Amino acid sequence: MKKQKKGFVLAEATLAEVNKQLKVNLFVIVVVGFVLGSNIVHFMQEKNVFYAVLIAAMVIALFFVIKSRQVLKLKQQELIK
Question: Is the pLDDT of residue 34 over 90?
Fold first, then answer.
């Protein structure tokens, strides 16, 4: 019997799994970008500290998501070679 994987492990990932994670990652970038844009619009209208904090949090989240995408792209290129 095969033991099922609990989650995504980059070191053991196949090219298909990496491509799937890249698609999910792109979706997350789009969603975070949309929420960030929405927060910026709300902040410009209301000048509320809450939206300023949300904007900072979304920028940090976007930074880490983009960094993870770069790592996935490196793994993808490694698997292609």
Answer: yes
Query: What pTM value is reported for the model?
Result: 0.80
For residue 11, being part of any structural domain is answered with: no
Among residues 64, 81, 74, the alpha carbon closest in space to that of 11 is found at 74
Contacts of 42 (CB under 8 A, 6+ apart): 48, 51
Task: Show contacts of 29-37: CB within 8 Å, 24+ apart.
Answer: 29/62, 29/65, 29/66, 29/69, 32/58, 32/61, 32/62, 32/65, 33/62, 36/62
Question: Whole domain around residue 59: which residue ranges?
Answer: 19-80
Q: Decide if 2 is inside a domain.
A: no
What's the rounded mean pLDDT across residues 14-20?
A: 91
